[in-house]
Amino acid sequence: REIVVLSGGVGGARFTRALRDALVDEDARIRVVVNTADDMWMAGLRICPDLDSVTYTLAGVNDEQRGWGRVGETERVSAELHEWGIGWPWFTLGDLDLGMHIARTSLLRDGVPLSGAVSRLTARWDLGVELLPMTDDEVETHVLTDEGSMHFQEWWTRHRAQLPARGFEMRGAGSATPAPGVVEAIESADAVLLAPSNPIVSIGPILAVEGIRQALAATRAPVVGVSPIIGGSVVRGMADACLTAVGTATDAAAVGLRYGARSAGGVLDGWLVDDVDAAEVPELESAGIASRAVPLWMTEPEAARALARDALALASRRG
Ligand code: GDP
Ligand code: FO1
Ligand code: CA
Prior knowledge:
The chain is α/β, with parallel strands linked by helices. 39% of the residues lie in helices and 18% in strands. It has 13 helices and 14 strands. A hairpin with a 2-residue loop joins strand 6 and strand 7. The relative contact order is 0.14. It binds guanosine-5'-diphosphate, ligand FO1 and calcium ion. Residues 8-9, 38, 47, 49-50, 52, 68-69, 91-93, 97, 153, 156-157 line the site of ligand FO1.
């Protein structure tokens, strides 16, 4: 069985880990297409937050508490950089994490595409899945605010998403092409799963890469998503501020309807909502999106694995 997951950082990483663990006894091939629009250059290094979140989580070396970077991290190098005024004073790169950024940047400077660097760097661990950046091209999400536009990372880590966002610009997405293997993975998949990732700044940029959107429209595989919104609120992060900026309610059905039914030019065949949002199922079904209400919290490993199995079950109902 071949499964493709579209993923952002933390939410996508937790879902992917659960899917891998739920299928540990099966002969499943899991490929994960990861958002790269949070990426940026800092201190001469290419930082790829979502790829690194997924890598560290699957490798079991992530800082689960903080939500980013490596466990047991020190910050001596970052403190030195801050002394010199290099980088952003509010943005910390851990020493172990910096090892990843240096290794990646070194490969990029040798002419290796990002996808090649990812496969080289992830080979260090037995992740149990293959990671594919959505594109080898540079795409960066910029946030439009009343004080001008800024990189997504500045809006999030400096302003904590408190500066009202008026819109988002996925710079470079229009001309970006899918990384090698992405379209093939979607075409040959038995199921495509949208992780409960941020619909605007994590899944949004992936869908903004034209070849990926076309592959999703064309694949024979059912496309099933998991809502990142439970009971009208985000579990963590800033998806509510992102949804408000684009005029979509922070609501499981509203997000599913925003993705739209594949039969009507959207991307979804199925959409999982939480038990507390069960009343929204009929609205989704009448819009042509198969829907079920199940527990969506991934706080406990067993609950997260059950969620992954529920997503696969909804996919096979459509398949
Ligand atoms: P980021 O790139 O680190 O922001 O991570 P993602 O975009 O992959 O995921 C962020 C989203 O994950 C947030 O909008 C949360 O609502 C969602 N999320 C986090 N934990 C859970 C959970 O336990 N269940 C569900 N359904 N969503 C979650
Ligand atoms: N988030 C913060 O809130 N503060 C930081 O200093 C910070 C540093 C950082 C470094 C590398 C990395 O991969 C992620 C980092 N994050 C930091 C998390 C990141 O800003 C976001 O949570 C994600 O990009 C959202 O997906
Ligand atoms: Ca992200």
